[in-house]
Design a protein that fits this description.
Helices cover 38% and strands 16% of the residues. The protein is α+β, with helices and mostly antiparallel strands.
């Protein structure tokens, strides 16, 4: 039972069967399994018996059926089919149409998580790569540790008056924080943030990395600082996109999901920095929608028989088109951003020590 996680737990409670989807089983627990999904006794035995591992299946395979006991506890009908399921980011990627090469999701939550469908595995230690949920599809994934958590830090630490105003019946603090940010020019008047406030995942994979506000002057305001924070997340996204493109993989469509997509200026900044169209989905319930699509596929519901058919039900809501002038201006700041970590990593580690 060492590979049990929340979807496995729920499936087991409903059906009595212990399963894990291939995407998680082979990506997150790969030392315990061979590539074909069978247990690896050599790596299992120091931890558990091979027969204690959850069975690896496809995410939309039927894990089993609701038992009488589970029916009494949940109200679900006995015999209701239950699919294996997957993790939140994987399901959210399915909800945005990552079912073919070139389709990409950027998840704007407390952190950033990116998943790009590819034809084959890409060998690059700076990023993560694995076989994806969709059979025959691989992916490149990447992550930025601080996104929504960074904006929350700004709200609580730099804009406490906006939070107090909200708590006293005023507008949402994040709306107040956005006032006049659109009047600040590209690059925040020469202020660049490294968003490594909680270390960083890809592409540096360094838990000891530290945040930086580079270029501060007496002319900068907290609005400059906040816009620079939003830009820094866009720089991080673009840095990872550039690494992906080094491998000649197509990026045909990008869907942005999560709480951050409510911020129109932030999404426009991401489009301007990357030079790519950024769309938000018409249906925004995210991972739950992806789970529903996989469940329909799992039971071969009419119109949902295969993953490829799921795209018929995934439509863009709003699309942010890059401003070419802004994109060219951002290139200078992107270059500085890319250079900041290599120039300061030794000093960061000294602080951590």
């Amino acid at each position: 039972m060492s590979t049990i996680q929340y979807t496995s737990f729920i499936a087991a409670k409903l059906t009595g069967n212990y399963v894990v989807d291939r995407f998680l089983g082979l990506a997150s627990f790969n030392p315990l399994y061979f590539n074909d999904g069978t247990p690896n006794p050599e790596t299992c035995l120091p931890i558990c018996r091979p027969d204690q591992l959850a069975e690896v299946k496809e995410a939309n395979d039927i894990a089993g059926y609701v038992t009488e006991t589970a029916s009494k506890e949940t109200g679900l009908a006995v015999g209701t089919p239950v699919i294996v399921g997957t993790d939140d980011s994987g399901a959210e990627a399915i909800s945005t149409g990552v079912v073919a090469p070139g389709k990409m999701m950027i998840q704007f939550g407390s952190s950033i998580y990116m998943i790009l469908g590819t034809k084959e595995l890409v060998d690059d230690e700076r990023l993560w790569r694995e076989e994806f949920i969709v059979p025959g599809l691989c992916d490149i994934s990447a992550g930025t540790n601080a996104a929504g958590s960074l904006t929350k830090w700004y709200r609580n630490t730099i804009f406490p008056d906006a939070l107090e105003l909200e708590q006293n019946g005023g507008p949402d603090a994040y709306i107040t924080m956005m006032q006049d940010l659109d009047k600040i020019p590209v690059g925040s008047d020469g202020l660049i943030t490294l968003p490594y406030f909680a270390g960083e995942r890809t592409p540096i994979n360094d838990p000891l990395a530290r945040g930086i506000l580079f270029g501060l002057t007496l002319a900068h305001t907290r609005q400059h600082m906040y816009r620079s924070a939003l830009e820094s997340v866009a720089y991080s996204v673009n840095q990872q996109l550039k690494i992906m493109l080094e491998h000649d993989v197509p990026i045909d469509q990008i869907f942005a999901v999560g709480g951050g997509v409510k911020n129109d200026l932030w999404m426009q900044i991401v489009a301007d920095v990357t030079g790519k169209e950024i769309s938000t989905p018409a249906i925004t319930v995210g991972a739950s929608f992806g789970d529903a699509l996989m469940a329909a596929s799992g039971i071969k519901y009419s119109g949902f028989e295969s993953f490829n058919k799921l795209t018929d039900f995934i439509k863009p809501g709003k699309t942010y088109h890059p401003n070419k002038e802004n994109h060219e201006a951002y290139k200078k700041y992107q270059n500085i951003y890319d250079s900041l970590y290599p120039a300061t990593v030794n000093l960061m580690h000294c602080l951590s020590d």
